[in-house]
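To: structure desk
From: M.T.
Subject: fold request, one chain
Message: Could you run this one when you get a chance? Sequence is below, nothing fancy, just the single chain.
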Amino acid sequence: MEWPRIKTMILTILLITNIGLLSFVLQRAYQGRQMQQEARENAILFLHNSGIEVDPAAIPGQMGLLPQTVKRDREQESRIASALLGGAVQELSWGAEAFRYYNEKGYLQFHRDGALKGEFVEGEFPIQEPESMDYTQQVLRLLEFEGDVVASTGTAGEEAVTTVVVQQSWKGAPLFRQELTLSYKNGCLVQVEGRRLNGEPELDPSREPISIPTTLFQFYHGVTALGDVCSRIDSITEGYLNPLPNGVGPSDLVPVWSISTDTGAYLLNTLTGELSRADPGEPELPF
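Reply: Done. C-alpha cells follow.
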C-alpha cells in the first residue's frame, strides 16, 4: 500500500476519534447543564410548596463572587492620611491595633478591623455646597473608598449639620455593613467615621461557594431556624461581608446573598449556607 494512502487512513481515523471525543464531551456538558437546571427548578418548586414564591429571573444564574482574603495595608493607611490631611503628618500607635495620623488640620485613626475615624478642625475643609455629592466623591477618592451614597440627612439653623452615609463596594459588588458617615458642619467637613476594607482583597482558592439549589434550600431552613415567616422573595443581590478578623492574620471577604423578602431582609453566606438577619444592629466601633 502506498504511503499517501496509509497517511490518509491514519488522518481519517484520528479525525473520527476526535469527533467522537468531542461529541462525548459535549454530551456530558449538556447533561450537566440539564441536571443543574433540574436541580434549580426543584429548589424553586420546593420553596413554592413551602409557601414562598420567587421569580426565577430574580435568582442569579451562577455564583458570581468568590471568597477573598484581606491583609491589612499599613502603607495605604499612611498614604490616605497624608492625602486627606495634606502635607506631613505625625504618627501615634497603640501596638498593632490602631494607628493615628495627625497634624494641625485634624486626625485620622485606623484600626486593625477596618474601623476608621477622623475629626477635623472646623474651617480646614470648607465646601461651597454641603449637599453636593461632588465634594463627597472627592473626599472618598482621597480615602481610596469606592461606594454609593445610601443616605443623606441635614438640619438647618445656626449650626447646619449634614451627614452623608456611603456603602463601600469592591469591583462593583456591595460590601454589606461596610459604611462611612461623613459629617459636615456649617459648610465644612468635620468628621468621618465607620468601617472600610483595610487592604486589597486576594482570591482564596481553598474555599468555593455551594450550589445555587443548595443555597435556596439553606435559605428556607435558615428562615425556619430563626423562627421567621415569609411568603415571597422580592430580590437577591450578590455582595460581600468582611467579618471582624480573628487574631492578627488576614481577614475574610465572604460572598453572600442579600435576600429581600416581604417580611424582612437576610444575608446568606454562600460558602456555608448560614443565614442571618440583614440588620442585627449597628456593630460597636472601637472609639
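Reply (cont.): The CA atoms of residues 59 and 236 lie 6 Å apart. Let me know if you need anything else for the meeting.
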